[in-house]
């Protein structure tokens, strides 16, 4: 699970605090490096192409089932429902 100030720097929806957050991290480079390292570590688990392709196919399959375009196959649906 992504955690603010661990994996990313949270910002206000209108970005009014962007300059302040950048200035803070420029004054605290170790904190910035820690956030970057944690974000990179989190993203590494998505670097394996085969599981990512499988997830994409399961998302498409679920869309087709829920939109009524195909009937669910119980052998596949067990990986999705739940």
Gist of the model:
The protein has 82 residues and is an all-alpha fold. The protein is built from four helices and no strands.
User: Could you list the spans in which at least 5 consecutive residues all have pLDDT below 50?
Assistant: none
Radius of gyration, in angstroms, nearest whole number: 19 Å
- How many separate structural domains? 2
Mean pLDDT: 94
Oligomeric state, counting identical vs distinct chains: single chain
SSE order: HHHH
Globally, the shape reads elongated
Protein traits:
4 helices, 82 residues, mainly alpha
Describe the structure.
- The protein has 82 residues and is mainly α.
- It has 2 domains: 1-46, no CATH class; 48-82, no CATH class.
- It contains 4 helices and no strands.
